[in-house]
Amino acid sequence: MSTVIPVILSGGSGTRLWPLSRKHYPKQFHRLSGSGQTLLQDTALRVKHLAAPILVCNEDHRFMLADQLQQVGISPAAILLEPEAKNTAPAIALAALKALEIDSDAVIAVFPADHVIANQAVFERALATAVSAAQSDNALLTFGIVPTHAETGYGYIECESGSSKNDSHEVKPVKQFVEKPDLATAESYLASGNYYWNSGMFVFKAATFIEELSAHNEAIARHCKAAYETAKEDLDFVRIDKAAFAACPSDSIDYAVMEKSNKVNVVGLDAGWSDIGGWRAIWDILDKNEQGTAAVGDVLNIDSKNTLVHSNSKDKLVCTIGLEDIVIVDTPNALLVSHKDRVQDVKEAVSQIAEDDRQEHLYHREVHRPWGSYDSIDFGNRYQVKRITVKPGASLSLQKHHHRAEHWIVVTGTAEVQVGEKVSILSENQSVYIPLGEIHRLTNPGKVPLELIEVQSGSYLGEDDIVRLQDNFGRS
């Protein structure tokens, strides 16, 4: 019997969910579904009844991804690091090559890390149907979402025959893939009953996919094989060869394979699916009060209707009065206020922020690192104050700075501090001074998180003023 291996793609940036989702902390790592887990964790748990998953992500997110899987008890078969984003076809090809190492007859079930599926039982039945077809017929299966309304934001899949509303979970031949339509066309698709939303989820034998990719886009198959064959293991990760992968064309699986192959079938899925493509989708899936308003965080709504208020601030009350059809998203260093009908235009705001050479599209005020996190709580001319949290047993890199000195004050926990050749232990309320240019390192030797305040002073305080001499996370 073929091993069924989940493949989770975690390469998206989720700009339509700014300011919560940002390049270095995208939407799949946030708790958005109401489950209490992040979208990535929800996805991994959804397929935990299958074999250990293969994940594909970019280098910047690797430690965050590994930490979140560990938090929910998921041990991956592999975490593949893409040197650069090349769209879904190369990412799936790399995962298929890894799956073939595990089982030459493996079936892979491919899922983006940032989707929501409300009905697990219905999902599992549809998945079993797709796996059976992949095993028996060597078919390429995609999941078509039974449409609930005339949506212009999704691509569509047209079936040969049958009503997509009444026979979900059946395997049907695909007549064509259709680009995102205008409203009138979407309404005609809905009325016909022969169209599904294109979900971006797939099931097929790994070998079959590689064969079809080689037949229809030989360059992607060839370059992915070369990049995978020269990959190197790095801690818990598989680092795909950068030079070989750079030559690989960038293309989606739909364009590279699914629209060209004669082996493609669709399985209907009606399980409360959402790709969480924007803030309106978040409003759709969250619980709402009698006035249709959804709230996350410390929020007080008075007579506000059909509104979403999402507060990510730890120390701020957000109060609304008499609003209607508004989306408010509050974070410590950026605030979004939009009419609900315009939230898709948030991508324009992100583009403008980037053009203005700002940082709010890249980072939150709190920045996650493999050893913990830091929160920039204050800054001014020649100084910056951070709250630093170090995980038990973790160490920052052995490093120095050319342009700044630092003071560390321990708030809770125990710190092992190296300054120059001297190593000392600091407890609560004790402090240490690190002169400009001095080699230093911070370690948490305890069993509880270490929290400290760091006060930086100097002529330049950017994060690129770090010379790493040794690092446990391979960053030196």
TrEMBL record:
Q: What does this protein do?
A: Produces a precursor for alginate polymerization. The alginate layer provides a protective barrier against host immune defenses and antibiotics.
Task: Please name the Pfam families in this protein's record.
Answer: ManC_GMP_beta-helix (PF22640), MannoseP_isomer (PF01050), NTP_transferase (PF00483)
Q: Where is the Mannose-6-phosphate isomerase type II C-terminal domain?
A: 357-471
Q: Where is the Nucleotidyl transferase domain?
A: 6-290
UniProt cross-references to Gene3D superfamilies, sorted A to Z: Jelly Rolls, Spore Coat Polysaccharide Biosynthesis Protein SpsA, Chain A
Q: What residue stretches are annotated with the MannoseP isomerase/GMP-like beta-helix domain?
A: 297-352
Write down the required cofactor(s): Co(2+)
- E.C. designation(s): 2.7.7.13, 5.3.1.8
Keyword entries, A-Z: Alginate biosynthesis, Cobalt, GTP-binding, Isomerase, Multifunctional enzyme, Nucleotide-binding, Nucleotidyltransferase, Transferase
A Gene Ontology biological process noted in the UniProt record is: alginic acid biosynthetic process
Catalytic activity, per the record?
A: D-mannose 6-phosphate = D-fructose 6-phosphate; alpha-D-mannose 1-phosphate + GTP + H(+) = GDP-alpha-D-mannose + diphosphate
Q: Which SUPFAM superfamilies match?
A: Nucleotide-diphospho-sugar transferases, RmlC-like cupins
Task: Give the gene that encodes this protein.
Answer: xanB
What is this protein called in UniProt? Alginate biosynthesis protein AlgA
